[in-house]
Design goal:
The chain contains 5 helices and 28 strands. It has helices spanning 20-42, 92-100, 192-197, 372-381, 410-415; strands at 53-57, 72-76, 79-89, 110-112, 118-121, 129-138, 144-152, 161-162, 164-168, 174-175, 181-185, 199-203, 208-215, 218-223, 231-237, 243-245, 248-250, 254-260, 264-269, 274-279, 282-288, 304-307, 311-318, 333-341, 348-351, 368-370, 387-391, 423-424. It is elongated. By secondary structure, the protein is mostly beta strands. A hairpin with a 2-residue loop joins strand 16 (243-245) and strand 17 (248-250). The strands form 7 sheets. It has a 5-stranded antiparallel sheet with strand order 9-11-14-13-28. Strands 21-20-19-27-22 form a 5-stranded mixed sheet, with no helix packed on it. The protein has a 4-stranded antiparallel sheet with strand order 1-2-5-4, with no helix packed on it.
Length: 438
């Protein structure tokens, strides 16, 4: 069954993450109130009611159930008051790792419909697991019915086990307001919508965002506008059981917790030979620079919204790493300090004490050259995810060059999502179902 809409069009009880224990309390309170009213009106006993009848899918005793099958509980003659899904990994290939995982990462939540008669799991099941589903319902008389189903899930085949290869940021990072969430998988993903819906982003200040794919193994999340500063963000990757492509299942869940720091924006109009930096909207520093000499496209500093990436205290700038051979007239090989990457095509903000034209002329090979003192300051006072907004050249920064994701308008970015729907980071869930076709 399709997971109920979580955009606010359904009754509050159907909202994802609604605690089913609260439903039970509300039902108990209702039953108590009803009983008191009858006693006061004539002391009659609570009328008999048919017992609640529960049904659970998958069926009891099923074996090798597809991990991306939903768990569904329905009730007749009553309402569902509690559902618990316990999963124990028995797959030998996963059992060792599963023993080290935080059990909280695998707590199954579900969505209850408006009248409390159907519950559907929000996430998929762990491959190679013994699953026990315990459901409870209550009839009009307050009598309880319980049903238990036990079944096993299909193991993930070695070589077809989707896992997280790397991610930016990592837990514990404090990042700038332009920071994307970059998820790199170890295998290609074809069922992109199901995988997107398995990755939930929650921020203290809920905003609209969306996922895009730079290739079949890399998914990127960004909000509609820059993050608000000074807030916590978490990413729950409910990858266990998702069918990333035919026969390829995720085997683990992950959680990433990071902080958005102050808002630092650097702006640079290349012909002006300076960079202006603001922090939380206030002018912080103006730095003299020398940018690309623009003799050819490679030597032209790109115009657009750059996000600060990795950084090096010392690095050798070698033109052969960006496709310029040693015998080319524009070849270079130079050691620099305090380098911060702004693209994957070789652009950095870095110290260039050898350049006498800083502040007066653009003579670099495309990078932004700074004097030593300013380079140290920039290196020490900026964060991964801070913004460098550059204008004034005829070379446009590509959206998929490094972290150029802000080069796309919000409409363009949303159109690039496999779900085609915004993901609101207020904890209300992801836009659609994570389950496969049933």
């Amino acid at each position: 069954m399709e997971v109920p809409d979580v955009t606010g069009k359904t009754p509050p009880v159907a909202m994802r993450r609604f605690g089913i224990g609260l439903v039970a309390l509300a039902l108990a309170a209702t039953a108590c109130t009803s009983g008191e009213a009858e006693t006061q009106s004539g002391g009659s006993e609570v009328p008999e009611a048919d017992p609640a009848v529960l049904a659970i899918t998958p069926a009891d005793g099923s074996e090798e159930v597809a991990p991306n099958s939903p768990v569904t509980v329905t009730a007749e003659n009553g309402v569902i008051t509690d559902v618990r899904v316990d999963q124990a990994v028995v797959d030998e290939a996963s059992a060792g790792q599963a023993a080290e995982d935080d059990p909280a990462l695998y707590e199954m939540t579900g969505t209850l419909n408006g009248d409390g008669t159907e519950w559907v799991s929000d996430w998929n099941l762990r491959p190679g697991s013994e699953v026990v589903v315990t459901a409870t319902a209550e009839n009009e008389a307050g009598e309880t019915t319980e049903l238990v189903h036990e079944f096993t899930t299909l193991e993930a085949v070695p070589g077809q086990r989707l896992e997280l290869a790397s991610n930016y940021p990592v837990s514990g990072d404090t990042v700038g307001v332009g920071m994307p969430i970059v998820i790199n998988f170890d295998l290609p993903v074809t069922n992109k919508a199901q995988v997107e819906n398995s990755m939930e982003v929650v921020s203290e200040q809920g905003v609209q965002g969306a996922w895009n794919w730079t290739n079949d193994q890399t998914a990127v999340f960004r909000p509609e506008e820059y993050w608000d500063p000074y807030q916590a963000v978490s990413v729950d990757l409910h990858l266990a059981g998702v069918e990333a492509s035919e026969g390829v299942y995720g085997v683990r869940n992950y959680r990433i917790d990071f902080e958005i720091g102050r808002e630092l924006i650097a702006t640079m109009h290349v012909p002006d030979h300076e960079m202006v930096i603001t922090v939380d909207g206030e002018h912080e520093r103006t730095i003299e620079v020398s940018n690309g000499k623009a003799n050819r496209r490679f030597d032209t500093t790109s115009s657009g919204v750059h996000v600060l990436m990795e950084r090096y205290e010392h690095i050798t700038m070698d033109s052969t790493t960006v496709g310029i051979p040693e015998d080319d007239p524009g070849a270079y090989n130079v050691d620099v300090q305090y380098a911060v990457r702004t693209s994957n095509s070789g652009e950095f903000v870095h110290e260039a004490s050898y350049n006498p034209n800083i502040g007066t002329a653009n003579t670099s090979n495309g990078c932004t050259n700074l004097r030593m003192e300013d380079a140290q300051w920039f290196f020490n006072n900026t964060l991964m995810g801070d913004i460098l907004d550059t204008t004034g050249t005829d070379r446009e920064f590509e959206w998929d060059n490094g972290w150029g994701f802000w080069q796309k308008s919000w409409d363009e970015w949303l159109a690039g999502s496999a779900t085609g729907e915004p993901h609101v980071t207020d904890g209300s869930g992801t836009p659609g179902s994570v389950h496969g076709e049933q």
